[in-house]
Amino acid sequence: MKLFLCPNAYNEAQLAQAAGCVRMLAAKGGHDVALSDADRERLLGTEAGIPAEISGFSPEESDIIVSLGGDGSMLRAAQTAVLSGKPLVGVNSGRRGYLCALEIGELDQLVAVFADIGFV
Length: 120
What we know:
The chain is α/β, with parallel strands linked by helices. The chain has 4 helices and 5 strands; from the N terminus they run E-H-E-H-E-H-E-E-H. A 5-stranded parallel beta sheet has the order 2-1-3-4-5, sandwiched between helices. Helix 3 links the parallel strand 3 and strand 4 (88-92). The chain is globular and about 30 Å long. It starts with a strand and ends with a helix.
């Protein structure tokens, strides 16, 4: 499965959580993970252990868009999802996260959410 991540890369705490999510998804195998060039540069610039091969495809080539952040991040990722014609799932690492399907502490359930919507 190809996942295009849209993290809140402007908040240091959420940037660290996004880096952890990237590492976890890459480590689980079976998932190709991509980021925008700007987000990839921010993550690689601040976190060790991010695989260098991340960001090899566009949102249009992905299977699903994953928002990492709060409701603002979800709304920004919705633009990417609409323009690419891909489904969107949100992981809340912000304050409210009413629009998100999961909380950051439930990140291990992300694959189960994909299965529920028929993407695994």
